Amino acid sequence: MNITEHNQNGLVYLTADGFDAAGGVAHGFSTRRGGVSEGIFATLNLSMNRGDDPDRVRENYRRFCAAIGVDVGKIVCASQVHGDTVRTVTAADLGIGLDEGEPWKADGLITDIPGVVLTIFTADCLPILLYDPVRRVVGAVHSGWRGTALGIAAKAVERMVDCYGCDRMDILAAIGPGISKCCFETHEDVPNAMTEAMGAAALSAIEVLPTGKFHVDLKALNAKRLESAGLDPAHIAVSPDCTCCMPEKYWSHRATHGERGSQAAMIALTV
């Protein structure tokens, strides 16, 4: 599977070829191009809580949702806390406005309800979308280094299996744009967390630098997590784009020192 870029009247977004080929799902990873926000939020900011004009953010949502073919009124998101909670989204979770506080904390969402738009937000952390076209279940995961160490992507797969009866070999995964190994320079706490959680399997994704710091490949680690959870490696697509390397195209917390908007990744079963 590959990740493909689209440009719809200046609005740039990405999709996973395998999801599109399977059909029955609408999804997309946003960039920062194609919106109406200004200043440090220029242009496609999809964060309601970083100080941008709410009307501009709503218009950005309208444009992005129209481009990927989902209903902006059926978005469900959570308060992301870099944990490993995966929530099953039911009909009772619908109707929470974008500018209202999310009622629960979670970094993963799964559902089998058509039309529900699972949404997670990133600006260096990894957005991961999951789709089982056989059982018709979708998932959206926010995975920073803490979530990677906790194995949230694999836990989302386990929840899809346990709650909806998915077969692991049917599940497709797409790891979207995020900070790549080239820019994710860390102290020893991050590689230590990975090796503690994953053992020797983590070592190939960790590089020791001459400075004594480390480069850590979160995309490779999450792909390993998904493979360990039983996914076919051929069913895992990984975006090569590094948000920190490409601040003109993506929001990067590290590149902007926190003065930024947010990307969103969305997925919904088509009705």
In short:
By secondary structure, this protein is an alpha+beta fold. It has helices at 17-22, 54-68, 145-150, 152-164, 189-198, 218-228, 253-256, and strands at 3-8, 11-16, 25-30, 75-76, 86-88, 108-111, 117-122, 126-132, 137-143, 172-175, 185-186, 206-208, 214-216, 236-238, 263-269. It has seven helices and 15 strands.
Report on the structure:
The chain is of the alpha+beta class and 271 residues long. The protein has one domain (3-179, 230-269): CNF1/YfiH-like putative cysteine hydrolases. It is 24% helix and 25% strand. The protein has helices spanning 17-22, 54-68, 145-150, 152-164, 189-198, 218-228, 253-256, and strands spanning 3-8, 11-16, 25-30, 75-76, 86-88, 108-111, 117-122, 126-132, 137-143, 172-175, 185-186, 206-208, 214-216, 236-238, 263-269. Strands 1-2-3-15-7-4 form a six-stranded mixed beta sheet. A six-stranded mixed beta sheet has the order 5-6-9-8-10-14. The radius of gyration is 17 Å and the shape is globular. The mean pLDDT is 96.
Could you state the order of secondary-structure elements as H and E? EEHEHEEEEEEHHEEHEEHEHE
Q: What name does CATH use for the topology?
A: CNF1/YfiH-like putative cysteine hydrolases
Q: How many individual domains?
A: 1
Output the number of helix runs: 7
User: What percent of residues adopt helix (DSSP H or I)?
Assistant: 10-25%
Q: Major β-sheet, in short? A: 6 strands, mixed
In the CATH classification, which architecture applies?
Answer: 4-Layer Sandwich
Structural class: alpha+beta
CATH superfamily: CNF1/YfiH-like putative cysteine hydrolases
